[in-house]
Amino acid sequence: MSKFNALVHNENVKIYSRARTWIMLLLLAVFSVLIPVLIYVNSTPENMPGQWDGFQITLSVIFNLTTIFTVVIASDAIAGEFSWGTIKLLLIRPWSRSKILLSKYISMVLFSLLTTLLMTVCAFAASLILLPSGGAGMTQGGWSPEAYSGMLIVCRYVELFLTATLAFMVSSVFRASGLAIGLSLFIIFVKNLFITIFNPDRFEWAKYLPFSHMDLSGYLVSDRGPGGVALSFSIGVLAAYYVLFLLLAWVVFSRRDVAG
Amino acid sequence: MTGNTAVTEPVARLLGVTKKIGSKTLVGDLTLDIPAGQVFGFLGPNGAGKTTTIRMMVGLISISRGDIVIGGRSIKTDFEEAVAQVGAIVENPEMYKFLTGYQNLKQYARMVSGVNKQRIQEVIDLVGLGSRIHDKVKSYSLGMRQRLGVAQALLHRPKLLILDEPTNGLDPQGIRELRDYLRRLCREEGTTVFVSSHLLSEMELMCDSVAIIQNGKLIDVRRLKNEEGTQTPGGEFVFEVDDLQTAQTLIGGTVRNGEGIVVQTVREDIPELNAKLVSGGVRVYGIKEVVVSLEDQFLEMTGGEGIE
Question: Is B181 near chain A, with CB under 8 Å?
Answer without folding.
Answer: no
